[in-house]
Specification:
heterodimer; A: alpha+beta; Aldehyde Oxidoreductase, domain 4; Aldehyde Oxidoreductase, domain 3; 3 domains; 28 strands; about 25% strand; globular; B: alpha+beta; Ubiquitin-like (UB roll); DNA polymerase, domain 1; 5 strands; about 35% helix
């Protein structure tokens, strides 16, 4: 297969549209007669709605509809963006209704107004009188799991959404044989996606009576199904259109707005209704990342081999299930191939609390468990007086390893080379020696952390992807995919794959970026870092089929056997010599207009990829800790990834930059804060929530170890989420190296760091002197 | 209360009655159809709604439309001339500074004002000038590179742009 286009940094196919302001996002669709929807939100974290009086709101001129739980279908539905499971036991928890009679977090939707403009809608919200019976708010998993705690969902005893887990081997027996046992407790914080485009949907009823929803989503086909379930109507009566999306990072792998938007247009006689969240709403009533507490116990032999590990995890999933049950399990399964050991026991509990809903976010449980395990490993290395890199090298996976629980195999494995490169880039040995025995108020340290991750969700989830290619009269093609572009660059890399297969330049591949469930091929969407790998397989399959049809058509025109032909640089050529037979455009034109043999060439295919591939990588970080202030400066940071063959180096580096930046925020500054008594959000805006600004992000070093993954036609593996995963533990380990203080929670804010440094005796009273 | 105001958008004169409570962002997007102006926070935190007002980058979400009386407004739609992308736009594409694209118009406008200023900027200066914009996709790396490149291109051409103003 010629791969002249694959591996090149071609410009994004949507770059010109985006840099000129022509790219259309959901909010840019303007419709005549469009109404505005707004949501009344609960001031209480946990309460029963005793009574709602909406009569004054309904009477306000300009109000088209007011909705409460009494006015909408009461069907319970799941919101998580997963393929529908035929087996009811494997379905996502259906714990939502479009509006609720029991509020479960501050900001939960109580009622909704549809009005002619925003000001009237806002005014109408104030006229709704709600009588609440306030219940005890359960703001931590401990409180929610305590004996006698009220139930957040009546069908969920102990407020435990899910538990379970697994045991490989016999962990107690392994501990018996271990020379050392180490234990740690570590925890992560609640953070938010903060994609620049807030959640927004526009819904209307079309002339055929079907509900059309233009929406900013990662998962249009799944949204169609969920809206059908929520309204209790056949799924085919819903049409979902996904235009340009201004970032998602997992928060749009969930049905946050669409069922309510659909209910709003139905209540307003089918007129278009725009439901757009403000930033403040978006940060509390879409999704967050689960805060997870871990207790880890590990058995090690005296030569530094890990032989058994027992991980207990308690994940705070907030008020509704969303992806909660799945995230605890995904985190516990994707990390485990990194250090195969004789025994591994994983015991997760996912617990409902009266906080905003946690769901999918870049890494899907892996940033949390990787922070815990990689920090724990550095604690062990220090106690055993081992270099953290050497300790890991004794335990790392090798190619050929097969996960004993799901059968996924490590076929390509560049983690050892990633570590070697990262070590060289940061000058690990040299700086380690230089920073020994530092004194003074500013201390430098080095840290690193590794990760493993999947490419897609197989075998837990189904991995269907669809692609359609049409050969145009001029020899260009349309490429239509069900995979969704949300900024990560999937349209471009998929176009590169089609171009490489068909011997075309990328600008002869016209990507249809909008997914419309009426016409886009079926694909479950952007999540699990699946599209380059999974959807790429479908594109390669469709392009190969088109190529075969083209060469077969040429055979009809020339009598040259198809197997002797190839396509290169838009020409049909002899495979053996490269001699040009005819231009592709000539074949294309003939395929449309030949009086006898015309048969325009297309492919419309689907691929059920019953396979997975592990990607790997490492972060190396150097920090400087100011003992007087607790401030941490990241001096250097390098991420080195094995994501298989890199399809587009510039876009790939962009994924790493963004992922590392998100990891830096996770490590140092980001945290959703809530009033400890009431559960009220304290920083749900971009001023008080500290996501990294341009001033906070250092230069990010990126390198790739390009293995070739044999299960993919182009040799690639996942890359979208992975860069976020190892950053926080690498920084934490660097701070540990600099100070000797074993930090156990995120984020490492100056306040937290200073308090711990002081407690450790590194800072004298008043913070003036340093010991 | 309605008030009639006049201003130019990308060189085109506009006369329009606006509600005195409306922001420039709302008028540009909802009334005049300049949807390249993005709404990310509505309170001046994110910079996605940046436009040039008499050449100065301003968050249009915290700028009342009535204040625009007599001003020259430039939105992202006015940056490319006759289908030709500007230096800043080309640099953003070449350096891979675009991902989801939602913050891009704002950055391009601030960078355009920097290029037009004729001033010299260190890397730290560039960061400070762009600090009013948030981006969650790029880690800012390629945005900085793109702005450096556009400034360098402008310098090589002897600041013709600034001289024209």
């Amino acid at each position: 297969m010629p791969d002249t286009v694959v591996g090149k940094s071609v410009s994004r196919v949507d770059a010109v549209a985006k840099v000129t302001g022509k790219a259309k996002y959901t909010g840019d669709f303007v419709m005549r007669d469009m109404l505005v929807g707004k949501i009344l939100r609960s001031p209480y974290a946990h309460a029963i709605i005793k009574n709602i009086d909406v009569s004054r709101a309904r009477a306000l001129p300009g109000v088209a509809a007011v909705l409460t739980y009494k006015d909408v279908p009461r069907n319970r539905f799941p919101t998580a963006g997963h393929p529908h499971a035929l087996d009811p036991k494997h379905r996502d928890k259906a714990d939502r209704t479009i509006l609720t009679d029991k509020v479960r977090f501050v900001g939960d939707a109580v009622a909704a107004v549809v009005a002619t403009d925003e000001l009237i809608a806002a005014e109408a919200l104030k006229l709704i009188a709600v009588e609440y019976e306030v219940l005890e708010p359960l703001l931590t998993p401990e409180a929610a799991m305590a004996e006698g705690a009220p139930l957040i969902h009546d069908d969920c005893p102990g407020n435990i959404l899910s538990s379970g887990g697994y045991e490989i081997g016999d962990v107690e027996a392994a501990f018996q044989e271990a020379d050392y046992i180490f234990e740690d407790e570590l925890e992560t914080s609640i953070v938010q996606h903060c994609q620049l485009e807030n959640h927004i949907s526009i819904a209307y009823v079309d002339s055929d009576g079907r509900i059309v929803i233009i929406t900013s989503t990662q998962i249009p086909h799944i949204i169609r199904r969920i809206v059908g379930q929520a309204l209790g109507i056949p799924w085919g009566r819903v049409r979902v259109i996904k235009p340009c999306v201004g970032g998602g990072f997992g928060s749009k792998q969930d049905a946050c707005l669409e069922p309510l938007a659909a209910a709003m247009t139905l209540a307003a006689g089918g007129r278009p209704v725009k439901l757009e969240l403000s930033r403040e709403e978006c940060m509390i009533d879409t999704r967050t990342r689960h805060a997870i507490k871990y207790r880890i116990k590990t058995g090690v032999t005296k030569d530094g081999k890990l032989i058994g590990m027992h991980i207990r995890a308690i994940a705070n999933t907030g008020a509704y299930a969303s992806h909660g049950h799945s995230i605890a399990m995904a985190g516990g399964s994707k990390f485990r191939v990194l250090y195969p050991m004789r025994a591994l026991k994983y015991e997760p509990y996912t617990v409902y609390t009266n906080l905003p809903v946690a769901g999918a976010m870049r890494g899907y449980g892996s940033p949390q468990i990787t922070f815990a395990v990689e920090s724990h490993l550095d604690n062990i290395a220090r106690k055993l007086n081992l270099d953290p890199v050497e300790f890991r090298l004794k335990n790392l996976v090798q190619a050929g390893y097969i996960d004993p629980l799901n059968g996924n195999a490590v076929r390509s494995c560049g983690i050892h080379e990633c570590i070697a490169r990262g070590k060289g880039l940061i000058k690990w040995d040299e700086k380690k020696a230089r920073y020994k025995g530092q004194t003074g108020s500013k201390r430098r340290g080095l840290g690193m952390a590794c990760f493993s991750y999947g490419s897609g969700t197989y075998p837990v989830g189904q991995e269907i992807a669809g692609a359609r290619i049409v050969l145009n009269q001029d020899g260009s093609v349309q490429l239509q995919i069900g995979a969704t572009e949300i900024g990560q660059g999937s349209d471009t890399v998929l176009a590169q794959m089609a171009a490489a297969t068909l011997g075309l330049p990328v600008d002869m591949v016209h990507v249809i970026s909008t997914q419309d469930t009426d016409i886009a091929p079926f694909d479950t969407g952007a999540y699990a870092s699946r599209q380059t790998y999974i959807s790429g397989m479908a594109v390669a399959k469709a392009a190969t089929e088109v190529k075969e049809k083209i060469l077969d058509f040429v055979r009809g025109m020339t009598d040259i056997p198809a197997h002797a032909l190839d396509i290169e640089d838009q020409n049909i050529v002899y495979k053996h010599s490269g001699e040009v037979v005819m231009p592709l455009a000539e074949v294309a034109l003939q395929s449309y207009y030949d009086p006898v043999f015309a048969r325009p060439i297309t492919s419309d295919t689907s691929n059920n990829a019953r396979i997975n591939a592990f990607s790997f990588g490492v972060s190396f970080a150097e920090v400087e800790v100011d003992l007087k202030t607790g401030k941490i400066e990241v001096v250097e940071i390098y991420n080195v990834h094995d994501s298989g063959k890199i399809i587009n180096p510039q876009l790939a580096a962009g994924q790493v930059h963004g992922g590392v930046s998100m990891g830096l925020g996770y490590a140092l500054s980001e945290q959703m804060l809530f009033d400890e008594e009431t559960g009220k959000p304290l920083n749900n805006n971009l001023l008080d929530y500290k996501l990294p600004t341009i001033m906070d992000v250092p230069d990010i070093g990126v390198d790739f170890v390009e293995t070739f993954e044999p299960t993919h036609p182009f040799g690639c593996k996942s890359l979208g989420e992975p860069p976020t995963i190892p950053v926080a533990p690498a920084i934490r380990n660097a701070v540990f190296d600099a100070t000797g203080v074993a930090f156990a929670r995120l984020p490492l804010t100056p306040q937290l760091v200073f308090a711990r440094l002081k407690a450790a005796g590194l800072v004298q009273e008043g913070g003036d002197g340093c010991v | 209360m309605l008030k009639k105001i006049s201003f130019t958008v990308n060189g085109t004169p506009v006369a329009i009655e606006v509600d005195v409570r409306e922001t420039l962002l709302e008028v540009l997007r909802n009334r005049l159809g300049y949807t390249g102006v993005k709404k990310g926070c509505e309170v001046g935190e994110c910079g996605a709604c940046t436009v040039l007002i008499d050449g100065t980058p301003i968050d249009s979400c915290i700028y009342l439309a009535v204040w625009a009386e007599g001003k020259e407004i430039v939105t992202i739609e006015g940056i490319a001339r006759n289908g030709e992308l500007s230096k800043v736009q080309k640099a953003f594409i070449e350096e891979g500074a675009i991902q989801c694209g939602f913050c891009t118009p704002g950055y391009v406008l601030t960078a355009t004002a920097m290029v037009q200023s004729g001033k010299q900027y260190t890397r730290e200066d560039i960061k400070r000038e762009l600090a009013g914009h948030l981006c969650r996709c790029t880690g800012y790396q390629n945005i900085i590179k793109a702005v450096e490149k556009a400034l360098e291109e402008e310098r090589k051409e002897g600041g013709s742009h600034a001289a024209n103003r």
